[in-house]
Queue: 4 jobs
Job 1
Amino acid sequence: MAEILLEDLSGVGRATAEKLKEAGFNSVEALAVASPAQLAACADVGESTASKIIASAREAADIGGFETGDQVMERRKLVGKVTTGSEA
């Protein structure tokens, strides 16, 4: 899969991408895990714009979504177990 450039994200132009890179956000994954307040301060954009950029980065990065504890528990129930035969 080709690397996604910051400029490819919705709401990120060349100038914003440069500000993000100067602030240390060099990848889409770095943006995907940032908070809107942090991004707004670093890139000199509003928090609503920062939220949109983060949402776009999360979609592009495809790093998975949030799972509740109940969802994790249900998924873990499907995991097979290997026994050793030990009686201890």
Job 2
Amino acid sequence: MTFTDYVFEFSSGLNKTAIIDKKNISYSDLYYKVLMISHNIKKINIVKEDKILLISENSPFFIESYFGIIKSGCTCVPLNPTLSKNDIEYIINSCNPKGIFIEKRFLDNMRNLINKDIKIVTEETLNNLLLDKECTNSGEEEIDLKNSVAVILFTSGSTARPKGVMLTHHNLCHNTNSIIEYLSLNREDRIEVVLPFYYCFGTSLLHTHLRIGGSLVINNKFMFPETVLDDIEKYECTGFAGVPSNYQILLRKSSIKDRNLKSLRYVAQAGGRLPDSFIKELKQALVGVDVFIMYGQTEATARLSYLPPNMLDEKMGSIGKGIPGTLLKVIDKEGKEVKVDDIGEVVALGENIMKGYFNDEEETKKVIRNGYLYTGDLATVDEDGYIYIVAREKQIIKSGGNRISPKEIENIIIQIPSVIEAAVIGIQDDILGEAVKAFVVLNDEVLKVDEKYIIEYCKDKLPSYKVPKYVVFLEGLPKNSSGKVMMGELK
């Protein structure tokens, strides 16, 4: 049994819509394509645990290929189509893939990176394939769920070479079950998808909604946020998931506050902290809709914790507690759990923790110790056990003997109505060691503010050593394909 078999266990024969894109695709048609791809992979002598790259935007081609590759017993390696040629060449050389499933429009830019021994499959190739009787009777692939790697997700290499996170079939099954449980997903759920499927948050939407027999609406046009709201209304979506920048844009650049999104049951946010002021705005804009604040890492198969919607007001700013089946702790440098309000590192234990980094035992040993994943995130714990992220260890600003969390300053700046986004870093200072520098994005439709205004605003709400010494205005913060701010580029 593979992860694909688990996902389609109860839905493979359903004559019900699974995917809404340019046309609707039923579960039975989708599973037919998955079987066809799996069978034909075996016919071209690509064998179990061989690596196969998948280069595609969100599309039926991605979904069919993804589950077909996993069904065959091979390891799927989804890649961002906009990765640099250097990164793709590095990944190809390190993975030694036997095949590449790629949208035809991306192929020309990749041809000189692909050696002649690698099998190439495009949408046109799939359209010419037929499923034969041998395929329908071929049975399930025998897989060691616990140890066989189903997927390798390469993390964005903003500061170094990309690292390949190895996720087993068991990792994927476990995390999918947990997310379904705490979101109370069921067959009637339909989610509007704007997150890329090559990103762990995006793939988790695929996994959960296909497992429960729900449906997904694909939208690759988030740069036009009104289309997202149109989709939610038109297709009566019950869910939406996004990273902070998605919600900031919807609240500042769309008509979300004036829409009647009556079908929405919940929205989910992860991929970084959404400032409290935006969370409050979101609740006011979507009255009666459950707001789930979540936290995770690729190394944890997407999800580590969530804050229940009924605790949002009481525990504003918290990432909640561990998801079902996952233990989260905040520990000091001696490995002991910290006292209330003391700062330590978040560590996690569970069946969702990655097998390790591909071909990088040294880095794996740094982050997985005694079964625990060391996240690199600094946090505090309150008296009820709720966790509050302070900062990434690498992002803490050390100024004049003080340790400063950039998030605290960002949350103050973002309260200014004219501000859409803010990012804070430390820069070298001959006297203080590091000085605070803020990057700010303003809303053109609101009265503009200047550097002096922002500094004075911060002086009124922060101790002097946390007030930015420098303020720079940008048209937009640099982000990776998953919507996360690339702090390294601001340096």
Job 3
Amino acid sequence: MKMIARVTGMKRSKGITEKGQSYDSTKLFIEIQFPESQDMCGYASQEFAYGTYENYEKLLASGVKMPFKAEIDFDFVTNGKAVKQIVTNVVPVFEKPKNS
């Protein structure tokens, strides 16, 4: 699934736990609209997994500034009990500057 959305934050994490297990991840915080109702309005930022630490570095190297608009690809993964949605690709959408 593809969508254009606003990335409001990123978090990277890489290292080794006290038990010797390695970890390497990037999390994106993506703005998602609430369903329209009398009791809700606006947006919330939802956390999504986006691969490894390297993806964080690639986005920074592209020149993005927070928050930024992007074309985002999602996929579903499961552990056999639960299904979750992950980000598989992010392409920043750079707005052309308006001429004054």
Job 4
Amino acid sequence: MKGRLHARTFSFDENFKLYDHNVFIGCLLKSPGVICALKSDGLVVPEYKHLLVEAVPCGSTDMTICRKIKALTARENGMIKKCYDDVIQSVLVSDELRKFLLDEEHPYSEVTTAQRAEFLFRLFAHVCIGGEVCQNEENIDVYIEFTRKLYRDLLSVQKNPDTKELQIVSLIYKVELEDDTGVVFPSAVRHPNTFFYAIVDPFKRNVILLYHVFGCGEF
């Protein structure tokens, strides 16, 4: 993912309206500053007919989901269990971790559909799957710790005045663009590790764009 995973932060000066998030994302992708920044990272915003915006659940304030995955796919010391080589969704899979993340028919039910939809699960999966050519880590704890730090850096939290517990205030949106032929952004080819997220902090009025197009990264 080196050289292909990018994060950019932008500020906005109007109140963010939750019910109008499609308009916000559309304006964002037409902003000259955003277009220029994305282009410098090799990502061009093309002409499009349809803006597809998915609101991504983001309520996890601990790493419970990742610990569940560890219990299913790794040994107690964190070493990832191996499996016979297979290609799933154009990714070479040689271990139980990536098999679990990529195989939609995987029998494990300990991680629910709702947990799989969470931004934390998606972020962890993106980190573990990596790029087209990558040296996979053998210990899952490396992925969990990196995901924890990245997750913390991307999100804004505040203390609930009633419960005194931390709650996430960032709003996460997954974005795709389509024309009459199909998807055109962030890539013309859909892939589990091609993504474009807009992470909005409505209080600080900033948005982080996190994006990656699956392929060969830098060495």
